[in-house]
Amino acid sequence: MPAEAKTPAVPSSKMADDLRVQRIAFLVMTGFLLVAPLFIYPIFLMKVLCFALFACAFNLLIGFGGLLSFGHAMFLGTAGYASAHAAKVWGLTPELAILFGTATAVLLGFFAGLLAIRRQGIYFAMITLALAQMLYFFYLQAPFTGGEDGIQAVPRGKLFGLIDLNQPLAMYAVVLAVFLGGFLLIYRVVHSPFGQVLKAIRENEDRAISLGYDADRYKLMAFVISGGLAGMAGATKALVFQLASLTDVHWTMSGEVVLMTLLGGMGTIFGPVVGAAVIISMQNYLAHLGAWVTIVQGIVFVICVLAFRRGIVGELAKWMKKSL
Predict the structure, then answer these.
(1) Angstrom distance (rounded) from CA 233 to CA 57
(2) Are 175 and 236 within 8 A, CB to CB?
(3) Tens digit of pLDDT for each residue in 211-225?
(4) How far is residue 289's CA from residue 255's CA, in Å, rounded to a whole number?
(5) Measuring CA to CA, which residue among 79, 104, 102, 55 is closest to residue 154?
(6) Does the pLDDT of residue 5 top 50, yes or no?
(7) pTM of the entire structure?
(8) Which tens digits make up the pLDDT trace of 258-296?
(9) What residues contact residue 234 under an 8 Å CB cut-off, 6+ apart?
(10) Pairwise CA distance, residues 113 & 248, whole Å
(11) Would you say 257 and 245 are in contact if contact means Cβ atoms under 8 Å apart?
């Protein structure tokens, strides 16, 4: 049995300050997102929120578990296909379609995790990339995915049979609720005893094992949670854009989520949200540059990595601690 960790009855001043800052930041973020549709295009905001949840899910795995996945797009894309198929072909309501897509990603995360966690480091990353590529070519050939055309004209339907999600603000409210729910779940996991053990495994796996913790079990649980939340983002995204396509399963999507996480701040709570907002904003407002958008993203990434090695949020947090 693992040794019982002795936690103080009263948290340290530093920990209490960090938690207070995070709660304030969450309230500010929530307040901004509630009023944002009044002056920002709702479809753009929904895209940012879907990718922000995707990046947060990925950050749970790499930032707090130390597991680099090069194939995380397989959860986003698989859940997107499952949700779109359930809504269009089976006629499920939007909430059930999202739940079905999320459950599919959880199941995929369990079986993919059983294979991937057997290896560490670059070998773990390569296994996830190989699995993602296998799924990409499967979805390319499978009849129910529509091949290169994808599943189009996915009906948004009515939430609980009452709220018409074809109204942009209604759809935005659902996406915001999904994002905040996923974000709070990640926050709770990170600050739970499970999250503390996960960080210990990231820092020194051999020492965690010597204390009696089953590292493989913790890594598998983190992989499943991360995959499920990434799938929730993909399932929601399919309903927002009424489309499930190969783009969300391609390896470049896995690369984008790595970029979002590193740019915002790996291992921080709010970093992936900021990183996703920056990348999606660049793609949206620099779309007139065509293929040059990728080059601009690369330049911005290099500059940010050189200037902000901890990411935007990481450097901001460091500056705030020095100022206090």
Answers:
(1) 9
(2) yes
(3) 888 999 999 999 999
(4) 20
(5) 79
(6) no
(7) 0.90
(8) 989 988 888 889 989 999 999 998 888 877 777 777 787
(9) 50, 54, 75, 76, 77, 78, 79, 80, 83, 101, 105, 248
(10) 20
(11) no
Residue 239 structure tokens? 């309903």
> What type of residue sits at position 265?
G
pLDDT tier at 244, thresholds 50, 70, 90 = very high
Residues 6+ apart with CB under 8 A from 254: 69, 70, 71, 72, 73, 74, 129, 132
Instruction: Indicate the average pLDDT of the chain.
Output: 87
The rounded distance, in Å, linking the Cα atoms of 309 and 314 is 8
Six token digits for residue 203: 């820092």
DSSP string, 201-255: HHH-HHHHHHTT--HHHHHHHHHHHHHHHHHHHHHHHHHHHTEE-GGGTSHHHHH
CA pair distance 200, 196, nearest whole angstrom: 6
Contact of 307 with 288, CB cutoff 8 Å: no
Q: Is 322 exposed, middle or buried (0-12, 13-18, 19+ CB in 10 A)?
A: exposed
Give the pLDDT of residue 6.
43
Q: How far apart are CA 125 and CA 110, in angstroms?
A: 16
For 83-114, what is each residue's pLDDT tens digit? 999 999 998 999 999 999 999 999 999 999 99
In single-letter form, the type of residue at position 102 comes to T
